[in-house]
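User: Hello! I'm new to structural biology and keep hearing that structure can be predicted from sequence alone. Could you demonstrate with Cyclase? Please show me the input and the output so I can see what each looks like.

Assistant: Of course. The first part below is the input, the amino acid sequence of Cyclase. The second part is the output, the predicted structure written as tokens.
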Amino acid sequence: METNETLESPTQTEPVETPTVEVVESPDPMLMSQPQPGSKTSDSWQEGQATISESLTLLRQFLTGINQFIRDNKPLLTAIALIILASIALKIVLAILGTLDEIPLASLLLKSFGLGYFIWFANRYLLRASSREQLAQEFHSYKEQFWGSQPLLPSAKTSADDSQPESTTGMTVQKSVMIHQSPEDLYRFWRDFENLPHFMHHIESVKSLDEKRSHWVAKAPLGTHVEWDAEILNEEQPKTIVWRSLPGADVDSVGSVAFTEANGSGTEVKVTMEYNPPGGAVGATVAAIFGENPEQQLEEDLNRFKQLMETAAVPST
């Protein structure tokens, strides 16, 4: 029996198409937040930026104007501030004295102190003719410091070009000290003005600009600072140096230092400073109230200079 075998061919699978997936990049949120050009929001954005820029420009101009006003009127503003501070200090002193009057025996002690001081003053200055003459000289000195004095630095009127700059008419201070070093070593150290802050504590820095000119930064009363440029007017190695501030300086000043050999026993260093303090006479008075005495400062500076030059190795050039 013939068997018909039916051979089934394998089923042919039709190809399946793979769907195409398109990746859409999400826009940058920062870009989405910015308005599109040409829209109303874009115009408002640009107007806002322009307003902010204009406001910042006006603010900078205002601050610049304030700064320029302070620079142009610095002496006047300083004097006003010092007068206000002096008034406050006076009120505080009066309040303290009023409180002392209420303390038992305090008033009697103050009167006794005043009487004792008067007796000492009369015995010191009034009883002898020489003492009265000394008192008159000291009074004249204080009057010149307050109202102005004649220049004490005639050599300051001589410079390389024979010009004669006017001297200052403010306070004048003169101090001297004996140092056991040669005039040459002392002159060489002082001539480099950048060394001065090492022993002058009220001078913060001195920067040499050239052979003659230098820039100074110093402390002023009540924690303020002043700056000025100075130039050397006259120098005679190793005897003397004379310098003064240039026009437009915060402090109008003239200074000199003289080195005189003392017969082999050392060198006398004499410093003379004449300057107009910030705030004028009012500034000088308030500075004295707060303990910033120019004479005391110069004396302490020279004592530090003496200690520095006698105990440390003198730098050579």
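User: So the tokens describe the shape?

Assistant: Right, they're a compact way of writing down the 3D structure. Reading them back into a model, for example: Strands lie at 171-179, 203-208, 213-219, 225-236, 240-245, 252-261, 267-276.
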